[in-house]
What does this fold into?
Amino acid sequence: AGTYVVAPGPSYAGHGGGVLNLASYPSADYNGKATCIWHNGTDETLQIQGRIQSATSYYVAMWRTFSSLRRIDLFQVYSVGGYNPLGTPYSYTETADLSVELELRMAGTSISVWKDGSSVISVTDSSISAAGQAGFYLSGLQANGGTDSFRIDRFEVNDGASSGSSIAAISSGYHQRGLR
It folds into this structure.
């Protein structure tokens, strides 16, 4: 129980994206949350992953900044590239210079996605019940040497009872072009 604040690991490839870190949690009932700053890039994705059993079994909240698809989705992943949509996607209209707190909450069979403290997708699903791990993933990052368009300022895993307010944001300042 409590709050785990996780800093990204060394496996990050600036333009290729990838899971930056994984955290184990002692219970299957937990929240994975990231604060992300999105400046001006397009065709980029932030994923908050939870109850990760393997590369082919986990829940994922996905924030997409594609020019033609600006929305948040919830999926249950069942194979490499196999995504089962859960709930109704949440569309947004913001286009740039946006700070978003994206959270994946899992409590029993209740799975939900929260944006800036408000529930945007909520479902009941029993496909994955074991705790597994939590992590985050960035993809489609500006590979053209452009600006720092996506930045994770904080990633944490908690039991929902802890606000994390006393925990330092040790993952602060990790940009899409590399660790700073």
Q: What stands out?
A: The two ends are 30 Å apart (CA to CA). The CA atoms of residues 153 and 172 lie 4 Å apart. Residues 1-16, 163-180 have pLDDT under 50 and may be disordered.
